[in-house]
Amino acid sequence: MALNFQYRILKSLLSLLLLSQSLSLLACDCIPIKNREKALSREYSISNAVFIGEVLSFSADSSSFEIRVVEVIKGDLSKGQIIKGINEGLCGPFVSKSGAWIFLGNYDQHFKANDCGLSLSLKHPWNILPPPPPEISAENPNWEDSNCKFDQIREWKNKAKKEAEKQVSYLKSLD
User: N or C: which end of the chain has fewer CB within 10 A?
Assistant: First the structure.
């Protein structure tokens, strides 16, 4: 009986190991962007909805969120319209903060940002730049919540915000 129990535990552990390995194979790596304007043009062309929206709320598990459309750049949405967005897929971007965002993706009954896409928070646009140097984040692992004690972090954040503004201006010029 004890041997049968140990066999079942071993079998369960091996199953979990195989499952975790197969899930890691499904994960994707987004290709680093070399030319932001070219990437934006491509993503604009494959999207049926490009807009600035305000993320209002999230579901309990953060798998969906509510967006108020603030400005339509491309698509059949209306200013002030409230739509549902979903965080689906393995390749992000993952909408995780309230506030203003630039969204590129597809809208049918709900909005889904393009996988490996350039949708981003306009208040916290950190994903458009490489992460801060390791020595900065090692000294301050909560850099995103910090009060910007480090000049390098402040400079990095300001650069990200300027890049986000340029991204919005460029997308508007494609219209």
Answer: N
